[in-house]
Write a structure and sequence with these properties.
Elements: H1 5-9, E1 14-19, H2 25-41, E2 46-50, E3 79-83, H3 95-100, E4 103-108, E5 119-122, H4 129-136, H5 144-157, H6 168-178, H7 184-193, H8 197-208, E6 211-213, E7 218-223, H9 225-231, H10 241-246, E8 253-261, E9 264-271, H11 277-283, E10 287-288, E11 292-298, H12 301-326
Parallel strand pairs: 1-2, 1-3, 3-4, 4-5, 7-8
Antiparallel strand pairs: 6-7, 8-9, 9-11, 10-11
Helix pairs in contact: 2-4, 2-5, 4-5, 5-6, 5-7
Bound molecules: guanosine-5'-monophosphate and manganese (II) ion.
């Protein structure tokens, strides 16, 4: 059920905002957008934003320098708002603040979200958490810096207004944010499309080394820790590789993994629609959306391919059986 922000904030003197580990565009945009709005409209409330280091490109947004990357001992808040975060474990370093807060609120659009806060505003059909935040704010009071942050979040989670989660309401929200005077084209170019030389090199390598499995229905690629060290690349430099893999004609699912630590992989799955990858991610302890999901897994690269490939195959088989049954 939709919440009233003013009601949630009534009587609160201190509010903390947090998002998921390795913040992406929507996590950063939604939390920063709400943070700036609260700072501007509720100056009597002490508001802090906690996020891990954000990708360098996102620093074109305003007030990113105010984001806190660690928690002070003994700090407690009247309210903790977690954004774009499917479960409390994904909060990372800010999880203790969530646990100790007098009240908690979760604003999210992950289908895998199990409503883990005291108060939950979860809309799995929404394009992004940024779109949900936009709907909670008083339009007249949205400033340019808030509009820029929310626009970036919406643009990123919709693959620049392309994925099927892009609804007429999404476009209306984006249009309303544009009317605040943002340079939307620059935000998209600088934070989504522009790649550093190293990012392009590692993307090229991942494409070059990719393989097709499951009767060419699934494309797989991986980047090892050694390769990341060789290119001087961090996890945020790998953003976009999985979407590029997904573009491959004839494939249904893209699986991209990179080594977080020795024998530990972060896995990203993307689907064109036939396979529900959120089910697979959940099976392996992660989460996400039907067409974009992720999780971490221990083992070798081959273990990942074997185990995850099996789950993809099971869904593809089900689909084939259904088709056979109709024909
Ligand atoms: P990505 O593959 O870009 O990291 O994530 C795709 C989607 O799956 C995002 O919505 C992200 O929040 C979610 N996701 C990725 N990894 C995990 C994970 O380890 N656990 C959960 N619960 N969700 C994840
Ligand atoms: Mn999101």
């Amino acid at each position: 059920m939709k919440i009233q922000l003013s009601e949630v904030l009534t009587g609160k003197r201190t509010v903390a905002l947090g998002g998921h580990v390795r913040p992406d565009g929507d996590c950063t945009g939604s939390s920063l957008g709400l943070y700036i709005y609260l700072k501007e409209q509720y100056p009597h409330i002490e508001t802090d934003l906690y996020l891990e280091e954000i990708p360098k490109e996102y620093h074109i947004l305003r007030r990113t320098g105010e984001i806190k990357h660690q928690i002070a001992a003994g700090k407690q808040y009247d309210l903790f708002i977690c954004l774009d975060c499917g479960d409390a474990g994904r909060l990372g370093f800010s999880a203790p603040l969530f646990e100790q807060a007098a009240e908690t609120l979760c604003i999210d659009h992950h289908v895998s979200n199990e409503a883990f806060a005291d108060n939950n505003y979860i809309v799995p059909d929404a394009s992004s958490t940024s779109e949900l935040v936009f709907g909670l704010l008083d339009y007249e009071k949205i400033s340019l810096p808030t509009a820029e942050a929310l626009y970036m979040g919406i643009a990123h989670d919709t693959g620049v207004f392309q994925y099927p989660c892009t609804s007429p309401e999404t476009m209306e929200a984006a249009a309303a944010l544009m009317r605040k005077g943002i340079d939307g084209s620059n935000i998209i170019d600088k934070t989504y499309y522009e790649k550093t030389y190293v990012q392009n090199q590692i993307l090229g390598r991942a494409l070059l080394e990719s393989i097709l499995i499951l009767n060419k229905k699934c494309i797989v690629s991986s980047v090892s820790k050694r390769e990341m060290e060789f290119y001087g690349a961090g996890p945020s430099d790998l953003e976009g590789i999985v979407s590029q893999l997904r573009q491959t004609k004839g494939t249904e699912v893209a699986l991209f993994m990179y080594e977080l630590d020795t024998q530990q992989f972060k896995i990203s799955l993307r689907s064109k629609g036939q396979v529900d990858v959120s089910v697979i991610a959940k099976y392996f302890g992660g989460g996400g959306h039907e067409r974009a999901a992720g999780f971490t897994m221990n083992g070798s690269c081959h273990d990942v391919i074997n185990n995850v490939g099996r789950q993809i195959e099971l869904q593809l088989q089900t689909i084939n059986t259904q088709v056979d049954a109709v024909c």
